[in-house]
From TrEMBL:
Keyword Protease: yes
GO MF terms held by the record: peptidase activity
Protein name: Zn-dependent protease
TPR repeat ranges, renumbered to this chain: 520-553
Organism annotation: Agrilutibacter niabensis
Amino acid sequence: MSNTHRLIPLRSIHVLAHALLLMLALAGPAAAGRNPPADDSVRALGPTLAGEFALQSGKLDEAAKAYLEAAKAGNDPVLAERATRIALLAKDNKRAAEALELWRKLGGDAQAQSAAEATLALRRGDERAARRQLNSLLQADPDTGWQQVVGVLGIGARDPEQSARMLDRLLDDGRIPNKLQAWLAFGGLAQKLDQDKLAERIVDEVVKRFPGEPRVALLRASQLRQAGKEDEARKALAALDPALLAVPELRMAVAAEYDELGDFHAAADALAQGPQDDQTYSLRASLLARAEDKSALTALYEELRRDAAKPDPSRRLLLGQMAEFLDRNDEALDWYRGVPGGTQRWPAKLRAANVLYELKRGPEAYKALRDLQSDAAAPEDARRDGYILEADLHNRDKDGAGELDAFARGLAAFPDDPDILYARALGWERRDDIPRAEADFRKILVADPDSTAALNALGYTLADRTARYQEALELIDRARTAEPGNAAIIDSYGWVLYRLGRKGEALTELRRALALQKDPEIATHVGEVLWDMGKHDEARKYFDEARKLDPENRALQRALQKIGE
C-alpha cells in the first residue's frame, strides 16, 4: 500500500474528477479565455468538495445536503445519485426523496433508481409503493432485476420482518422469474431472515419448478437445517445421487452442508469422492482435525506422504500442515524445511518458526524469524509477516516488551505499514491501552483515509471501550458509506446505536448483520441488547448460538460475566 498522504479517499476521486471534467466541458472555449466559465459547473464544484469533506468526517447529513446542492447546481445525475445514496444511509428520507426526484429528472440507471425508490418507500413504511417498484424491477429485466430486488430486501428494508413480508407478497404476485438462480437466491434470503415458513414455501415451489435439480435438494437440506430439522436435512443429503459428487461445485456444496450440521466425517467423505487436488486434501484434513479423528487423519496423511518423494512445494506444505494437526511437529518441521522453492517457500518458513515454538525451541523460532526478516530475497509481505508472527509469539510468552520491540523493528523496516500498525493496535486494545490503539488506527487513516478496516476498528473500539459515541458513529458511518453491505460494519453500527441508547434501531441492525454473517461476536451483541431490553429468554438463545460458534470469544465472555450467567 502506498504511503502517500492524501486528504481525499480513492473511492471519491472519481466523483471530484467528474465534477471537474463537467466544469471544463461546460466551459468549452472558456479554457482558452474567450468566454467566462459555465456558472453551473463552477457552482457545483464547491458543494461537491464540501460534501466529500463532510463524508470524510462521517457527517452523513451534511454530506447528503452538500451533494444535493451540488447536483442541483450542476444538473448532474452522478451527483444526484450520490446524494440519494448518502441520504438513504443517513436515514434522511426527506432529502433522499428530493435527491431521487432530481436523479430521475436528470436521467441515469433506471433500475438503480427503482431500487432506491423501493428502499425509500420501505424506510417510510409505504410497502404498497415499495411493492410496485420491486415488481417493476422484476418485470423490467428478468435477467438482472431480481438481483436488485434481493439487494433491496437484504439491506434496504427497515427490519427483517418487513423484508419477509415483502418477499411473501412478491411470491403472491407471481413475479419471480422462472430462473433457478433467482429462486435459489430468494430461498437463501428467506433463510438468512430466519423465516422458516417462508423459506419452506419457496423451497416447495422450487421443487415443483425444477424437479431433479441437485441444487434444489441442497436448498431443501439447508432449509431443513435452518428450521432445526437436522435429521431430515441429513436424509435429504443422503438421498442425493452419489454420481453428483463427481462435480466439484456440488461436492463442495454438499460438504459445506454437512459441515454446517457438524457432521465433519460426512463432509470429509463427500470431498473424498471424485478427482482430488491439494485443495480437497487440505479441506479433508481440516475436517478430520475438527472431528478430532486422528486415526482417519493419520490414514490420509500416510496416503499423501507415499507420493511425496518428488519435491512438490504445495504438497510438502500441505503435509507439514497435516503433521501439525496430528501433533507430529518434528515431521511438520521436516516437511516445511523440505519445501524447495516457489511461492510456498515463504509461508513454509513462517510455519516452521511456529512449529519450532510449539516444540519448546523458542530461541530457534525467534532466530528463524529474524533471519526471514533480514532475507533480502524474501518478498516484503513475508518479511512483514515475520515481524507480526514474532510479536504474536512474544505475546504467547507473556513477554510484552518483546512483543512491542518486534512491532517497533517491523515499523522501522516498513514505516507506517498498515498491517503491522493494525496488529499493534489490537495488542494495545488487548492491554486496555485505548489511547495508543487509537493512535495506531489513526496512523493507518493518515496514509489511507479509505481503509474501511481501520475506520471500522477504530469506530468500534471507541464505541465499545470509551464514551465517545458520536465520534465512533462518524467513523463507522464513513466505513458504511464505502461498504454498506459489510456484516462487520453493520454490527459496529448496531453496537454504537446501542451505546447511544437507540436500542430498537440497534437490534434491527445487529440482527441484519447476523443474517449476513454467523459470527459469535455479532450473536453476542444481539443477546446483550435483548437482555438489556428485558428479553432474557430470547437473549439466552443468542448467547447459546455464540457459544456454539466460539465458546472462548472475548466479547461473549465479557457479556456473560456482565450479566452473571
